[in-house]
Design brief:
Elements lengths: L2 E5 L3 E6 L2 E5 L4 E5 L3 E6 L3 E2 L2 H9 L3 E5 L5 E5 L8 H12 L1 H27 L6 H17 L6 H16 L2 H5 L17 H22 L20 H23 L8 E4 L2 E4 L1 H16 L1 E4 L4 E4 H16 L13
Parallel strand pairs: 1-5, 2-6, 5-7
Antiparallel strand pairs: 2-3, 3-4, 7-8, 9-10, 11-12
Helix pairs in contact: 2-3, 3-4, 3-5, 3-8, 4-5, 7-8, 7-10, 8-9
Pfam families: Cas_Cas1 (PF01867)
Family: Belongs to the CRISPR-associated endonuclease Cas1 family.
Cofactor: Mg(2+); Mn(2+)
Length: 334
């Protein structure tokens, strides 16, 4: 199975023969190109036009993050899977308000369902706060019912926002850690350690989904819940709503509760709190391990990795817009 390459060091990344070659002050390393699915660059890494042509030919996305771990952008090679019919059907489902809302509802419903599953899992593993979590799960059940009467994207976004706000209130009950108090959701900039973890994890989730979209006929520029406007990509934001609770949030709980990540893994930059380089490396290592973890897929009858689950979700969306089968969001069972 191909692997994701993460580069934290400063250096130069180039093509040498038919391999990738990374050179820094500390080391020189050849990387077999056929083993790489996508590349995440966190350090100051120089690349050449020849290198970009090479990774484009090999259908590899490059995701860039700045010194503080903030997502900058993606080198998204020219699409190798071109299907005008799919793009037309995708645009049709965006322009037709009924079709768009129908699909957008499924993303919100799937997202709330995953939040509920995460809460049910941890509700059985905590000593204090069970009643509070039960109440919030009940609120999420009611919010899912509200989706039926939503007639606009704005209403759907409001339900999703209120649901996530309720969901975040449970984090302190699950963590019980004074070094990681939630307080409130802050993004730009994150004002505490827990928000810094959430923001960083979500960025990785968005780019992981984007890499998987590249391997399908879908166009990442045409989303449904998130508006297709002047932002470059939006479909990955839609699909990530379903995977953030099980891919990012559960990893955050595990990393903190097992003390894999502590307050020492954060830096204060001006008024914001950010993950240190060591903190980012730790989180990325655990997330990469999680993405490789396999689970039994109840419909396929075989084990698939979390990363493969994302691709399967995209195939389901593709079938939906082609009119072959109604899309049903993935629902974790544990």
């Amino acid at each position: 199975m191909k692997k994701t390459l993460y580069i934290f060091q400063n250096g130069e990344l180039r093509r040498k023969s038919n391999s990738l070659y990374f050179e820094s002050e500390e080391r020189k390393k050849y990387i077999p190109i056929e083993d790489v699915s996508d590349i995440y660059i966190f350090g100051e890494v120089d690349v050449s036009k020849k290198f970009l042509e090479f990774v484009s030919q090999k259908e590899i996305c490059l995701h860039y993050f700045n010194h503080y771990g903030y997502y900058i952008g993606t080198f998204y090679p020219r699409e190798h899977l071109n299907a005008g019919y799919i793009v037309i059907k995708q645009a049709e489902h965006y322009i037709d308000n009924v079709k768009r809302i129908n699909l957008a509802k499924k993303f919100v419903d799937g997202s709330i369902g995953q939040m509920m599953q995460v809460l049910k899992y941890y509700r059985n593993r905590i000593v204090e706060g069970k009643e509070e979590i039960d109440k919030i799960v009940n609120d999420l059940v009611n919010n899912r019912e509200l989706l039926k009467d939503c007639g606009s994207i704005e209403e759907l976004m409001a339900v999703e926002g209120h649901s996530r706000e309720k969901y975040y209130k449970t984090f302190d009950f699950i963590l019980r850690n004074d070094d990681f108090k939630f307080e409130k959701r802050t993004k730009r900039p994150p004002l505490n350690r827990l928000n810094a973890l959430i923001s960083f994890g979500n960025s990785i989730c968005y780019t992981t989904v984007l890499s998987e979209i590249y391997k399908t006929y879908l166009d990442p520029r045409i989303g449904f819940l998130h508006a297709t406007n002047f932002r470059r990509f939006s479909l990955n934001l839609d699909v990530a709503e379903i995977f953030k609770p099980i891919m990012v949030d559960r990893l955050i709980f595990t990393s903190i509760n097992k003390k894999m990540i502590t307050k020492k893994d954060f830096d204060k930059n001006m008024e914001e709190i950010i993950l240190s380089e060591d903190g980012r490396k730790k989180f990325i290592t655990e997330l990469d391990n999680r993405m490789k973890t396999t689970i039994n897929h109840r419909h396929l009858g075989k084990s698939v990795s979390y990363r493969r689950l994302i691709r399967l979700e995209l195939y389901k969306i593709q079938k939906h817009i082609m009119g072959e089968k109604d899309y049903v969001p993935y629902q974790s069972l544990w």
